[in-house]
Structure formats: structure tokens, C-alpha cells
Amino acid sequence: MISSRPSLIRTTASCRVKASPSPHLWLHNPTFPFPEKRSKNLKLNATNSDLENTRPLIKFPPSLWADRFLSVPVEDELELNGLTREIEDLKSKVREKLAFSPSDNDKERIRSIHLLISLGLSYHFESEIEDTLDRAFGNLAEIIADEYDLHTISIMFQVFRLYGHNMSCDVFDRFKGDDGKFRKNLEMDVRAMLSLYEAAHLGTTSNDMDEAMSFTSKYLESLPIDLASPHLYSLIRNALYQPRYHNMEILFAREYISFYEQEEDRDEILLKFAKLNFRRMQLHYIQELEIVSKWWKGLDLPSKLPYFRDRIVESYFATVGVYPEPRYSFQRTMVTKIFIIATVTVVDDSCDAYVTLPEVASLVHGLERWDLGVIDSIPDYMKIVLRHALLILSEVEREVKPEVRSQIKQETMEELKIIMRAFLQIAQWARAGHVPTFEEYMEVGLVTTGIELLMKLGFVWMEHTNRKNVSEWLRSRPKIIQTVNAMFRLSNDKVSYKHETSRGEVANGINCYMKQFGVTTEEEAGGAIQRMYDGNYKILVEEFLNSTASTDVPRNLLMRVLKMVGVFDVFYRDGDGFTYPRGKIDKHITSLFVDRIQI
């Protein structure tokens, strides 16, 4: 029997379907149990004509990159070695400047930590930062007792919450008038307003930062261009479009380095350190792209299976968003391979964009058995899909330590079986033209994201983790993982509605919401989906704070979940950037992997 996926919050009478559409239906129940269905019970009777008539035959845009990253210049290796030595020298100087010692001013150190985070440098000083914040948070009341600078308080709020310390939003009451609203004179400090705006994106389900969000958004959106320097104004406009905590950390770091370079009070040593560090990260990424590009070229899948999305570079770019630090090279390359073969592209697109319903059932059966022995009974192109899916998962098995190999293999097999059964259910709905209820769809749609499998396998190779504790935590299907899973499904469905329905895939979040609640426009349904997404983000922040305080799971691991949200937002903010990367995602990729930062 397939074990059901536990719901985050049990469905009660108060959150069942009602006559009027309510985005809150889902805010308090962001995941649902997977229905207990086995593919072997599926009975299919179809003629050859029927099989061909149910083949979707979708054509996606080709890769934008061709062989662009197949080779790395020899001089890059020499530069990388030189940069490593220079960075180590600068790191010691920066550490001395920051003076992480108890005798220094806590507020100044926290401002320095915020700057390190913004420049993409904080990973160099994680232990010093955590020790500093642990000590300071225990003395927070005294530190902020006489602090009435909004910019400083907003920065402290961000830093503490990012490191798992639940600094109360009550700290902002000192900036409000007798009417309980933020005082108008705060608008005289543009930087403070931007900092409060950023802090507001770390609010939780108690709606503790909603007023701050409304207050700062209205002000910043109407800010005249002459009230801020050009580089600050540009930072504000970008923040309004892509808030920093809904952005990929590495993309924000590149933007902030350019901003900081134009600041009059910049620290030249810190600026040089940030540029050298970013350049070294670029070189790491380019070397890894060469590795995965050669691997991909060797498989030659785009010519063998021309119907799927050839997105090896975009897949790698997504993993950089979750694991940006240089030391996570193995995670980036392995998760990219799993992502493009076993979850989001080859297998998913085979089920959605080409394979007939009986063939989906055969593929599910083969993967359930983890057996290449069934390969003779399926079409040639299906043999290719099955063989490569099993081979990449066998590679995962080889790469984990012997003592956990059997456990990881078993858990991966079970997770993939559940994903494949969900693909089969989506295919059944599509071929039958059936639009399920929103709840029925989400039960299945959440599974097809593959997020849980990708996170689980990425965490296996994380350093300084108690694998037993982490494995038990993941098996409990924690709320934070389920919530980020929900956010992926909601954001993807909102932007993929048109091209999915055009190919006959009627079971989509937008479509199901419209049918269930009698909503007549895509815009209205999309607005409801967005409100669910925003509500789930608050749940995510809350769960991050709760998990950091109450579990043995390292903060570094939990941060991967928060970083994943930036990936969703970058890819899906203005359309399906993964399927159609030209115009935005290709520019981000160029900024990271092609245009080297100038030292």
C-alpha cells in the first residue's frame, strides 16, 4: 500500500469548499495527502489509432546555448588559483576590520553582517556571525533600548530573522504615532524606508509586517527620481520589481556590488574582496557548466528525444540559486543531473508532451520496479527515457557513503514511485479532458514538483550534518518542505496555464480553481493563486524561524529551503522562464556565466 502524504494542516469543515472562492481555503492547508492509488490497477483498452490520437505532440523552443559552455579556457584555471590566494589574504584583513569580539559595538557589527550578506560574503564568516548574533540576541533589549533610527532597527530585524532569531515586530512600534500608524516624517529617510520594505518581506502569518509593507510600498512606488541618487533609485526600482528575499542570492549580490561601488562611504578593501569573491564564484560555475555540458552532450538526448525542453544550462542556473557557495560544487552538478533527467524535464515532458497514456503506465511500471528488464516491452524512445532515469539514480546511489547507501536507494525509489504515479494521474486527466476540483488537483500536483526528492538528495551531501537526524526530519515531511513545495506548484501553475491548456493539459491550478469556484477570468484566478503564494511565503518564514529554534536541523540546511523561493520567483515572476528563457532568464545566465565582473 502506498503511504499517504500527511497534510500540513488537517482539512476541517471550516476550510472545505464553499460557495464563494476564497484564497484562504488553501493558506491554512498548503499541502494535501497523496491519494492511495496504484498504477497496476489501471485498466487500459485502446486501439493503435486511439494511442496516436492521445499523443500530445508538443514542440518546445530549442536551447539558447548550444555548445556555448563546452570548453573552459586554460587561463581560467590559472586565474582561479590566483584568486583563491588573494581572497584568503583579503579575508583575514576583513576579519580584522569587522573585529568580531565582545568588546565592540553590537549594532555596528550587525550592520557589517548585513553588508556582508548583501555583498555575497557572509559564508566566509558563518561561525563568527552566528556567535555574534547568538550573544547579541540574548542582550537585545539593552542593545535597542535607546535606538530610534529606523534604518538600524530594520537592518537588525532582517539579520536576526535570517539567522533564525525571531526578533519581534513590536520593535517598530516606536516609529508609530498615537493612531498606531507609521509616522509620516519617516519618509524623509529614503534608505530607511527601503530597509523597512525589505524587512517587511520577512513577516509571518501573524501579519506582523503587513502595515510596514503597505506603508513602504506606497512611498517607494511614488518616489520622485530626484529624491534619491541614481544608483539608490535604481536599487529601489529593482527591489519593487524583485524584492531581495524573493530573489536569487547570487543575482542580488551582483547587483549590490555594483551599487556599493558607487557609495561614497564604501570600504575599498571590502569592495575588492566582494569583486574577487564573485569572480572566483563565476569561474567555479563556468568549470562546472563545462562538466555538465559535456555530460549532456555525451548523452545526446535532445536529438534522440526532440520533444522535451533542452534546458541543461537553465537547470544548472537553478541549482546555483539553492547552492551558491563554492564548496557545494557536487550538489550543483548532481542535482542538475537529477533535475533534468528524473524530475522536471525528460521524464515530466515525456509524460506531458509526447507519451500516450498506456506508455505513461509502462514507464511508471518500469521505474516502480527499478528494472531495466522491462525495457523490451516498451517503444524505443521510452527505452531511452527509462534507461537514463535509472542510470542517473544509480549514479546517485554510488555517490553516497556506503553506510547510508541502502537507505538512500530505498527512499529515492519510493519517492520516485510516488512522483511517477502522480504523472500518470495528470496524464489520465489530460487524455480524458477531465478538470478535477482544486483540492483533487493539488493533491497530485504537489507531488509532481519533485521538490522533496531534490531537497532530500541535495541534503545527503551537505557537510556538518547529522544524517540520521536530517533523514528522520525529512521522513516526517516537515511543514517547511511541504510549504516550499506548494509555492513551486502555485507559481508554476500561474504562469504555465496558457501553454498547458493549449496542449490539452486541462488539470492546472488556474483551470481547476476557475471551474470549482465559478471564476470566469484567468486574471481573477491568477490573483487568488498569487494570494495563496504570498500567504504560503509567510508560513515559510514562520516555519524557518520555528525550525531553527526547535529542531536539530542546521540553519545552513534550512536556508536552502528559503533560497529555493528565490529560484521560483526569478523563473516565474513574469511568465514561464524555464520553458521560455529568452528575454529574462537568458540575461541572468549571461550576467553570471558569460559577463565576468570587472575587478
Question: What CATH first level of the largest domain would be assigned?
Answer: Mainly Alpha
Overall average residue pLDDT: 86
Compute the CA-based radius of gyration: 25 Å
Task: Domain count, please report it.
Answer: 2
CATH architecture descriptor text of the largest domain: Orthogonal Bundle
Order of helices and strands: HHHHHHHHHHHHHHHHHHHHHHHHHHH
Beta-strand residue percentage: under 5%
Measured between the Cα atoms of the first and last residue, the distance is 59 Å
Write the CATH homologous superfamily of the largest domain. Answer: Farnesyl Diphosphate Synthase
- Class by alpha and beta content: mainly alpha
The name of the CATH topology of the largest domain is Farnesyl Diphosphate Synthase
Give the strand tally: 0
Low-confidence stretches: 1-52
Main sheet attributes: strand count, strand direction, barrel closure: none
| Tally of contiguous helical segments | 27
Report helical residue fraction: 55-70%
Note the overall shape: globular
Polypeptide structure, described:
It is built from 27 helices and no strands. It is an all-alpha fold and 599 residues long. It has two domains: 24-66 and 276-593, Farnesyl Diphosphate Synthase; 99-200 and 202-242, Alpha/alpha barrel (Glycosyltransferase). α8 crosses α9, α11 (249-261) packs antiparallel against α12 and α18 (380-399) packs antiparallel against α19 (402-432). The chain is globular.
